[in-house]
Amino acid sequence: MKAPTLGESLLFASLGFLGASLLVYGTVAFAGRWMYGNLGDGLAYVVWAALFILAGGAALSRLVIGPGRLMRFYLLFSLAFFLYAAGWVAAYFPLRDARGEWLGSLIGTLLIAVVIAWGFGAWNRLLKMWLVLFVSHSAGYFLGSLLYSTIGDKTGMMLWGASYGWLFGIGLGYAIYAAQRETRIALTELGENRI
Description:
Elements: H1 6-60, H2 69-95, H3 98-120, H4 126-151, H5 153-179, H6 181-190
């Protein structure tokens, strides 16, 4: 299997994270009231973060070059998404308005970018990865929020999940691709563009 191109990375990540997001937003749409009532806000968010990590990590791991990529990436993505979720909650919960959502997007995507840069040794691409993640995340989240506020109910929630997953997935695909630049160069120099 050859190393994924940028186009393949964006496609696989957008579709894979779209699926993960629909799973999570589906539980919000169809079981959210029960989860908030029985688990409380904090534990409900922990469950949703865990679902994103399990489904998203599996989908995105196929973009990683090298052996043992599923387990290696699961560990990295678990840390990245946990910090993203913690940053989001820390920013959003005190404000509980659009300012908190924007601050959560800014901090959360920075934390994901830092973990990806650290995990792949790609510090020289941290700023670009963060900007792409911030723009794609914000576009997906706020477009989804607009769709939900316009349509409402379960359909609106599922459209929010689709928008968030698809657009944020594009940013994640770019970040994972960009973080592996040196690996791709080394493989090309060896004449081996294979995973």
